[in-house]
Amino acid sequence: MSKLMATTIGLITSSALLYSFQSNIENNTSQIRGNESNISPTKPNNRPQLPVPSIAQTKNYINHRLIPTFKSTWNEHIETFAHKVCNFDASETAKTAVNNAKSFVEDKRWK
């Protein structure tokens, strides 16, 4: 299939999809507007309202829960990293890497 034909088919398909989506959006919008016109504006909203946390509650959550949790997780990761750096044996790691490279080369050479 030539590039021109593939591009043309792609454009036709995307245009059809966009037209379908636009039609669906228009239909849904008109249905919503029709439902809103049936509701009298004097009726209160019957949906339950979620409680909005106060600034004090949010501040307490941040200071007593979020920050200490973040700090402890951060400290654990730093401690683990420092432990790995302190116990890192460069010579043993280099020997292992060289042995792995040798075995890899030998395996590839005979295949």
TrEMBL record:
- The Polar residues compositionally biased stretches are 29-48
Q: Which UniProt keywords apply?
A: Signal
Give the range the annotation lists for the signal sequence: 1-20
| Entry keyword Signal | yes
Region Disordered: what ranges? 29-52
Q: What is this protein called?
A: 1580_t:CDS:1
